[in-house]
Each structure stands twice: as structure tokens, then as C-alpha cells.
Task: structure prediction
Amino acid sequence: MSDADLHNITEAELEAALDSRSDKPIYRVLKKARVGIAGLGGLGSNIASALVRNGIGHLVIADFDSVELSNINRQLYTLSHVGMEKAPALKKILSGINPFCEIEEHVTRVTEENVQVLFGKCDIVIEAFDVPEQKAMLVNSVLEKIPDAIVISGSGMAGYGNANAITTRVLNRRLTICGDGTTDVADGVGLTASRVIICAGHMASRAIELILNKERNQDTGVKEL
Result:
């Protein structure tokens, strides 16, 4: 298919194609959702890809960093993106996957002070940082400052060990943690695309589950997720 053909694809055609892979229509439900991703590295870039492929309608993405050659082993970027700021580079990739997703990009360091400004309108905020202190800051800040948002965080996806050790743990109604909860790059085991992408898949899957369950609960009058 040529670039010209791609530009002629309508949203109705994309909706029909995506819903044909589901047992019930879900595109219009996912289209209404607003998800924020803090950190656009191995976790964040792959989570974003999974979400737009499934039809998420609004993404807020934030990262202050640029693509480095060492990122290529696990992040969604290609060699052509090396040197580019991650947020605009990722937006361009995602728009090529699903041009009907509204993507709000921020080239900035996420801090306790700007979390609410960046992600205050999001239904779900996904933490995808590398540094433990940043992870804790993001989770705590969202839980405290954005009372209606649900947080999904990653913990433990380094190395090349047992993929089944990566799990999804629902701690409470507003917080889910995905990963093996143990391995860290600081342990000298490194990072590989396979395990990072598996954890990213868990996190994206949990986000989609929460969105679809919320819609179902609203339809049946259930208040809790």
C-alpha cells in the first residue's frame, strides 16, 4: 500500500478493521479514553504503540530526553530517530500507526510540580521511568493530586530471565504494578527488548482492561472499577 493509499484510509474503515478483531465493538469506547505516559523509553514507547494500535483516542506523552543509539535495543525508535527528542519522534511514529489518535506531546522533565498540569485530564497515568525515585514521585503525585486518575507502574523487567515472572498486580482500585518486582538494571543484568516489551504489554493490557471495564460498569450502574 502506498503513502497515498494510507492517507485515504478513513476512521470508519480503521474502526471496522479494529473491531473485526474483537468479539464486540470496542473502538468507540477506547476512542473516548485519555491516557498519559510519563517516560518514553523502553516501557513508554512500547506501551504507547500498543495503545494506539488498539484505538486509544487521546494520549498525553512526556519526556525531556533524546533518542540515543543505546536505546535501539529495546525502544520503539529506529536509527533514523537518533538525536531527536523522544516526544516528537514518538508522536510521528504513532501518527503513522493511527492518525486518528490525538497525541499531546511534552518535551519536559516530569516533576511533582507539573504532574497535575500535564496529566490532570487523564483517566489513566502510566509511569514508565527508569529511576526508582522518579517512579515513586510520579505514583505518589498522581495519587495525591489527580484523585480521579488510576496509576499503572512498572517494577522489574531487566535481564533475560523467566518471562513468566513478569505479572500484573492490582494493589488497590487506583494502583497497578507490572513486572517481576525484583530485577533492576543496576544488578548488572542489563535490559533486553524481549522482557521490556513483555512488561510494556502487561501495562498496556491493564490500561485497556480498566477502560473497557469502566464502560461496562457505567452501563450496568456499578460505581467501582
About this structure: The CA atoms of residues 10 and 162 lie 42 Å apart. Confidence is low (pLDDT under 50) at residues 219-225. The chain has one domain: 3-220. The helical segments are 3-7, 11-19, 27-31, 42-54, 86-97, 115-119, 132-145, 193-220.
